[in-house]
Amino acid sequence: MAIKVGDTIPESTLSYAPYNPEHPDACSLPQLLKTHEAFKGKKVVLFAVPGAFTPTCSENHMPEYVKDVADIKSKGVDIVACIASNDAFVMDAWGKTYNVKDNILMLSDANGEFGSAMGLVNDGTKNRMGPIRLARFAMIIDDLKVVYLGVEPGRDVTVSGAPAVEAKL
Amino acid sequence: MTIKVGDEFPQVQLKYIPFNKENPDACTSPQVLDTKKDFAGKKVAVIGVPGAFSPTCSVKHLPAYVTKINEIKAKGVDLVVCVSGNDFFVMSAWGKEEGVQGNIIMAGDANGELGRATGLSLDLSKVAMGPVRLTRFLVIVDNGKVTHLSVEPDPTDVTVTGADNLLAAL
To answer: Where is each Thioredoxin domain found (chain B) (predicted)?
Structure first.
């Protein structure tokens, strides 16, 4: 049963490689992040992509958020995060190709816990992408409650893109 | 059950994105690598790594294979395949960053098929990297048969699975 507006996001353990301003190119050691602890009391824009380094995600989805992150944060958003089923090293490397620094938190749900708990995963085995891949979606989370959810119905970026989210802020 | 020297290398289909010399930045159509059909009659070195873009893999493991690829091929290796639990898009991007240029097939085992078939999988869920990843290993497959197998006792280090280890085993 998929998560919906009004629900509380699940408590899950994700990971990310923290940005180090003294060594911006270094790959720091991934840290674990517990969703309830990290997002409590905050307004979060979370957008999910099926795969780092894949065409649609890299060309049509991520760039808009990179461009608009300052605008999004100026509307009272504390954290803008990108999440995928890739591991934290991959998310870190992908984020670096866009020079995100610490403007966008690049999160990993490699264990599939978070996506599965929300019912927002697809089986990618036919394409050899693994059995648990996050769907493409964007969410506005306010103090752990889902206040906007746009799950992409097709292969394009519409309800999960930066403009759609900004219209709701 | 883990494979051993003398075994037939299991038949698994992995995916990879071929390198496009004319347009190296292009994302070309993925191809399937069949570990039985495509290895038949060939001498193949298969290198398993826990994670693309991770420090040990990127600093200590893959680079030596990139720089020594000609030496490796001069010793009769027809195909060098680098595989991890990442998907093939990630492997392709990593290969581009490491300057592989099509000399090594960067294959993804995101379905965990190779890991399960060889017994060389690693559960990295405790560090949030997923339950079916590959450990660090080096296999030489000669016309379908495993003639060399070394598995890193500590997957965060490279001692028996490096390019020099491969050259010494050929």
So the answer is: 3-170
Summarised one tens digit per residue, pLDDT across range B68-114 is: 999 999 999 999 999 999 999 999 999 999 999 999 999 999 999 99
Of A117, A124, A120, whose CA–CA distance to A153 is shortest?
A120
Whether ipTM > 0.95 holds is no
Partner-chain residue, chosen from A53, A87, A112, that has the shortest CB–CB distance to B89: A53
Q: Kindly determine whether residue A89 and residue B108, on different chains, have CB atoms separated by under 8 Å.
A: no
Cα B12 from Cα A92, distance rounded (Å): 30
Whole-number Å distance between alpha carbons of A161 and A60? 8
Question: Do the strands A121-122 and B13-16 form a parallel or antiparallel pair, or are they unpaired?
Answer: unpaired
- Give the whole-angstrom CA distance, residue A93 versus residue A109: 15
Question: What is the C-alpha separation between B130 and B126, in angstroms, rounded?
Answer: 8
- Please give the positions of A annotated as active site: 57
